[in-house]
Amino acid sequence: MSKTYYIETFGCQMNEYDSEKICGLLNTEGYVEISQRDQADLIIFNTCLIRENAENKLYGKLGEVKKVKRLNPNTIIAVCGCIPQNQEIREKILTKYPFIDLVFGTNTYDQLPELLYDITQSQKKIIAIEENSDDLIEAIPKVRKFHHKGFVNIMYGCNNFCAYCVVPYTRGRERSRNRQDIIDEVTELANSGYKEITLLGQNVNSYGNDLQGSYFFPDLLRELNEISGLERIRYMTSHPKDVNDDFIAAIKDCNKVCNHIHLPVQSGSSKVLKEMNRKYTKEDYLAFVEKAKREIPNLSFSTDFIVGFPGETEEDFEETLALVRQVRFDAAFTFIYSVRPGTSAGKREDQIPDTIKHERFDRLLKTLYPIFESNNKACIGHDYTVLVDDVSKNKPDYLTGRTECHRLVHFKGDASLIGQVVKVHITKARTWYMEGNLI
Ligand code: SF4
């Protein structure tokens, strides 16, 4: 009988994509994925270290599976991803949860079949971590979550060392994938019916900087735009220090590159941005947004904010609110700052008290939400192309999808439309979504 596995993924799209590869490797080995965690022969947690919340979630899950391991000692419990890359936390979880059988990192998941073989042979705990690998792991089979949209990694790692972030320590320095490997992967997806791809990287705009050539992210966008069958190109995440006129021109010229930019600003105070080591000022950010909106019709902007970075004053925070009002973002991921192990910001003594962080966080949301709603309301009465993703979770006769500018749309329709690009006339708008009628 086939062995079964259960996988749970925390964190960003990069982890989601790594999980698709882990599933691909396991399926090739004859394992079958199941959704009942406690019945699986192998339980994998693909972890995230970027916020304290994600770390605490893992501890909760490990507490739950302790009982599973006690009832069935043959179940293999594995922890992988960013958390094990940090030595201090890795040692902490191995001490606190001694029943974990396998720990592997972001540079060793391709070794999973051999690691599982070794565990069954030796019956011993295995820890497979490579601290700083320059290797690019290619040619891994993937189990893709969707059949109409998919992720494609274009680079790994990050060189930026933002003061609050662990990624350069967990995923190493920037490594761009070979251009032809990316083109081949996207072409293969388009040939298999995929309509949308999202190019992934911690900082996609620095694609090519490490290749010592003259081929950069805008060149890649232009080349991918020529692939027939493909309809939409997205990318995550862009860094404000690396955006430039070529980038704007590529979005403007390429009809398949979506008119949506996710550009994390983090703070509206140039002083805080400097202390975060972000390498741009509030003025740089605003100048880019203004130029991009002027050049690209109907461009939507989303962003990330961190509230309560060490040393953030009331005046700094007011500057963030002022920037929100000026840019009028269409969506945002908002985070309360939390100390991350090994980061320079985590060592600062001027941490902001929790009560102030929460109070500022609430004020940020109160400023953002009416803007999101008002931006969505401006779409009422207009028609949008929507890539249909799924049946609505709340209303079974409704479908959900995204416009090119990344707005979420619900509308009545048949499940046979999933994966199709359709036109929807918008009739209602709320803070997080719009509703409409299929045309
Ligand atoms: S750009 Fe900054 S926040 Fe983003 S992954 Fe790199 S270090 Fe972290």
How would you characterize this protein structure?
With 439 residues, this protein is α/β, with parallel strands linked by helices. It folds into 3 domains: 4-128, Rossmann fold, CATH 3.40.50.12160; 149-377, tm_1862 like domain (pyruvate-formate lyase- activating enzyme, Alpha-Beta Horseshoe), CATH 3.80.30; 383-438, Nucleic acid-binding proteins (OB fold (Dihydrolipoamide Acetyltransferase, E2P), Beta Barrel). It is 34% helix and 22% strand. It has helices spanning 13-28, 52-71, 87-96, 112-122, 167-171, 179-191, 217-224, 245-253, 270-275, 282-295, 314-327, 354-377; strands spanning 4-9, 32-33, 42-47, 76-81, 102-104, 126-128, 149-153, 155-156, 175-176, 196-200, 232-236, 260-262, 300-307, 331-336, 383-391, 398-403, 408-412, 421-429, 434-438. The strands form 5 sheets. The protein has a 6-stranded parallel sheet with strand order 2-1-3-4-5-6, with helices on both faces. α7 (217-224) links the parallel β10 (196-200) and β11. α7 runs parallel beside α8 (245-253) and α11 (314-327) runs parallel beside α12. The longest helix has 24 residues, at 354-377. The mean pLDDT is 94. Bound molecules: iron/sulfur cluster (SF4). Residues 158, 160-162, 165, 167-168, 202-203, 239 line the site of iron/sulfur cluster.
Record the strand order, biggest sheet.
Answer: 2-1-3-4-5-6
Tell me the span between the first and last alpha carbons.
49 Å
Instruction: Choose one word for the global shape.
Output: globular
- What does the average pLDDT come to? 94
Residue stretches low in confidence (pLDDT < 50, at least 5 long) are none
- Rg: 22 Å
User: Could you name the CATH class of the largest domain?
Assistant: Alpha Beta
Q: What is the number of strand segments?
A: 19
Biggest beta sheet attributes: 6 strands, parallel
Q: Share of helix among residues? A: 25-40%
Percent strand equals 15-25%
Q: For this structure, what is the CATH homologous superfamily of the largest domain?
A: tm_1862 like domain
Number of domains: 3
CATH topology of the largest domain: pyruvate-formate lyase- activating enzyme
CATH architecture of the largest domain: Alpha-Beta Horseshoe
Bound molecules: iron/sulfur cluster
Quickly give the structural class.
alpha/beta
Number of helices: 12
